[in-house]
Every structure is written in C-alpha cells, then in structure tokens.
Amino acid sequence: MAFNSAKKFKEAKKALKFILKSQLDSGAFPQRLNEKGKDASYKPIQIDGSGLTIYAFCDYVKKSGDLAFGKKHWNCVTKFFKYVKSALDTGRGLVFTPNSVHEFPPTEEGLELWANGVCSAAFREAFDVSKLIKQENEELLNMANKIKEGIDKYMWNSRVKGYIKNIRLRESSSIIAHVDVAVLALSEFNVFPVSWKRVRLSIQRVQKFLWNKELGGICRYPKFEGRNNGGWGPWPHFTLMMADYFIFVKNKKKAEKYINWVLKIAYKNKLPEHLATVKEFNEYVTDFSEAAILRPDRLTMIENTKKNPLFKKGIAYVTLPLAWPHAQFIITWNLYKNKFIA
Question: Out of 2.30.42.10, 1.10.10.10, 3.40.50.10780, 1.50.10.10, which CATH number does the structure's domain 1-209 have?
C-alpha cells in the first residue's frame, strides 16, 4: 500500500506476487510468511491480514490500471469471499476471527472491530475492481455493506460513546469495551464517512485515553498488567493513522501534531515498532523471564533494545527499524502532501 501511494507500482506488484501465491486452500492467507513465502505462522489466522491483502491487491489494480493482473489473480478474491462467508456470524453480519491486529487471541478472538472494518473495506474495493475487469459481482458489495451495518448496529456502545473492540462468542460470552486503536480501521479504510459523529466520538476517545502522557504518541490499548510486548508505550504506526484521520477531516494543525511526534522520535531516520520507558521495558523483561516465556527472538529483541544509546537516557526503542511504521509514514506523507501542499 505504501508503494501504491508513492506510485511505485513495479515494487507493489512484486510484493503482491509474493503474498498472493501464499493463499491457503481455505481462502485465508497465513498469519506470517518466511523469506521464501512459506507459512511461518505461530499464531491463529488473522482475518484482518487476509482482508488487508485483498484490499492492497484491489488498491494496486485501481491505482495502476493493471487490469490484466487483476484478472489473473481474481480467483484470490473469490476464494477469500468464500472463506469470509463461512466465518460469518449470520445473526449480526460480522466476521469471526481467531486472531487480529494485536496478535493476542484472548482479546482478539471473536467479532473484532479492526478485522471487520478491514474486511468490509476489502469487499467494497473488490466490487469496484470486479466492474473494471468486467466480472461485476454484487455479492461483494452486499458483503461489504452487511459487515458495515453489523459494525454500526452491534459494535456501537452508547455507554462508552464509542465503537467497542470485540464481541466475544465462543470462549466466553462477553464484550471488550475498553478503548483501542482498532477503531482507526474505520477511518483509515473509509468504512464510514470520517464526518460521522460516531467515528468522531470514537477518535476523540482514542485521543483522550491512549495518548501517552510521558512519551507522547498513541498507544494501542490501555496498560494491562501481564499483557506486554517489550514495554507498554506509543506506536509510530498508529500515531500516523491518527494523523491520517485529521488529514481526512482537513485539520492540518492536529495532523501535524502527530506527524511531528513521529519525526521527533525517529532515531537516525529510522522508526521503531514502539517506544517504552526503560522502567516499563524492564518490567516486561522481569515478568516474562520469571515465567520462562521469552522466545529466542525476544531475547534478541531485548539485547538490541539495550544496545541503543537512548536506553541509558530512559527510553527503550523496541524493534528498530520496523518496516510497518515506515510504510505507514509513506502513506501518511503522501496523504498530507496531496491534501495540504499539492
């Protein structure tokens, strides 16, 4: 998607070829791939990752005009549609996912907001492409609208005045109503108009509760004891998505607040997965070490984090650099440039 936004269509096509061939027989895409494009998953399928693949594919076809590529790989859309249809909670019109964007099934498994937002957007874009390649399919648009209507009807919570994170069904009948950046999928992928009051109220909730008062930036979710990933703190990726929302609503000043924070924390022009205070990073190391749940790759992450000179100044740069926030920066910058400069 970053390549698409930068009109680097040759690179975008190469990336899509790499991932599209990994589609499973079920129609989903693996949670993770190795460098050879083989399934390297160690957690359950993430339907949002599959939806994002289809969204990026359609985004490429629409922006590049490469209809031949769209036709050649259209079967990937067809297979994914069948997969989502099989995972649909028909009573609510929402998609069940075993896992989602935060890769933490205890709060991700269920009718999760981010996954449903991305899937709705993917099918909307797929409908547009189906018309371009002369294979118009109304079922795609119907699915997009069904999911969107399910989000608005069942995931809006009048008590918290925001869209909730998840409706849990299979393991425990409950909802997860705490504030979560999953709501940013609704604006980032244009599921609902950004001018909608419910979208605005949900974004305000993220601003109020997830801005890190010590380090700045947007966190993924509130701090929970026992749930940690290298120290709780702000993520450049989601901070940039917040900037995108304010670009969409033409609020230049607030967009720049979030973009400037990301520029400020960049270390030698590189962005980390997230930041944490050294105190909270060390809490993570202690808790996970004593419970003996640190994988070898986590030990490498800890070692690299401690090597950064800023660690001695009290800030942990976790996983530096990471491709995800760099890709999002390209998307955000192009949105900003096109809205306020071009």
Answer: 1.50.10.10
